[in-house]
Amino acid sequence: MAKGMTLEELRTALSSDATIENDSLKLELKNVKENASAEIEKYRTEVKKYQSWFEKLANRCLILTDGSMCLHCGISGCPYALDNNDWDAVCRVMKKNHMERTPDTAAILSGLIQDRQRKKLRKGVA
Predict the structure, then answer these.
(1) Of 36, 65, 94, which residue sits at a domain end?
(2) Considering its fold, how many domains does the chain have in total?
(3) What integer is the mean pLDDT of 34-61?
(4) CB contact at 8 A, 76 and 54
(5) Nearest Cα to Cα of residue 80 among 113, 117, 108, 116
(6) Cβ(90)–Cβ(112) under 8 Å?
(7) pLDDT at 44 (0 to 100)
(8) Do 26 and 46 reside in the same domain of the chain?
(9) 78-112, pLDDT tens digit by residue?
(10) What is the pLDDT of residue 42?
(11) Are residues 34 and 50 in the same domain?
C-alpha cells in the first residue's frame, strides 16, 4: 500500500488496472482471431489450388500412359490408383497362373490393370 493511500483508493486503483488489462487482452484476442481466420482461409484456398493441380496431373498421367503407370504409381489420393479390389485381382491372376515377379508378368498385369481402368472409366466409378 502506497504511503497516504486508503484501502478504498487501493481497491479502485487495482480494479482500474485490471479493467485496462482486461480490455487490452480482449482487443488482442480479437486481433488473433481475425488473423487466424485470415490464415485459415488462405490455407484453404491453397489446398483447393493444390487439389485442382493434383486432379489435372492424375488425369494427364492416366491419359498419357494409358493407365500403365497405375500399377507402379503408389500415390495415395489419386482417383485412378489401384484400390483393394484391383490388388486382389492382380494377386488372384498371379496365383491362378503361377506367375512370378518378372518384367513379363508386369507387362501382363499392366494390361490387366489398363482394362480394369477402362471399364471403371466407362462406368464412371473412377
Answers:
(1) 65
(2) 2
(3) 93
(4) no
(5) 117
(6) yes
(7) 96
(8) yes
(9) 888 888 888 888 889 989 999 888 888 888 888 88
(10) 96
(11) yes
CA gap 118, 38 in Å, rounded: 43
Q: The pTM is what?
A: 0.56
Please check whether residues 72 and 118 belong to one and the same domain.
yes
DSSP 22-83: HHHHHHHHHHHHHHHHHHHHHHHHHHHHHHHHHHHHHHHHHHHHTTGGGGT---TT-TTS--
pLDDT digits (tens, 9 = 90+) for 62-76: 888 877 777 777 777
- Taking alpha carbons only, the member of 75, 73, 122, 113 closest to residue 93 is 113
Range of the domain at 125: 66-126
Q: Does 72 share its domain with 59?
A: no
In this structure, the answer to whether residues 55 and 74 fall within a common structural domain is: no
Structure confidence at residue 51 (pLDDT)? 92
